[in-house]
Amino acid sequence: QMADPFLYDTGERSQYGCLGHEVQIEHIxxxxxxxxxxxxxxxxxxxxxxxxLFPDTRYIVDLxxxxxxxxxxxDFFKGTEPWKTTDHWADxxxxxxxxxxxKVDKEADVVLKYLKEQCGxxxxxxxxxxxxxxxxxxxMLKNPQLTAxxxxxxxxxxxxxxxxxxxxxxxxxxxxxxxxxYDEITLLEEKLKQYCKVAYKIKVYPGQVHGFAQLKPEDMxxxxxxxxxxxxxxxxxxxxxxx
Length: 243
Prior knowledge:
By secondary structure, the chain is of the alpha/beta class.
């Protein structure tokens, strides 16, 4: 029995009334939240293994929109089942084979086209959590249309070409995340220093487990709250610096 890598209880969540709406873009459904004023700046949010409907992810979409960005979370699983809290971790490797975070390019292109043509977006950033963090890392190596990226607790492990980022990328990690070792973070830092030609940042938040930055205020434990709030502020500040 594989240990549950998340350590936080993904089941117990307060209700969340979303501020945005759902749209259909070609073969993908997406959740969109817009600020109350016109903007030509946009952010794509890539969900974790729990998919585009997960309330924590929609909360983040709304939060980023509140900072003045057209924010969109597409269903990168294209209508297939997300991972569920009742699924067995023994099956996780097989599930991942059918849900590869490095095969998101086509969907990303569809969403970029939508943001530019339908929403008038001129500058587009990307933020991703866990599975989505790996997808962001991949896309920041491949897609020059993305002006800046924030990858939260996701590293591309099995590829040598993971350091030539095209645009500024910020990597956020939790110190107590047992899906990502400290050695992997150190290696990332060393190699980026060596190969990366754009701005990048790596930050590890004390005492935090995998998935820490997505919690809604009422679901946070008091001792985690300052770190969660700091990580979110850092995420927004990085986006604002470049977009």
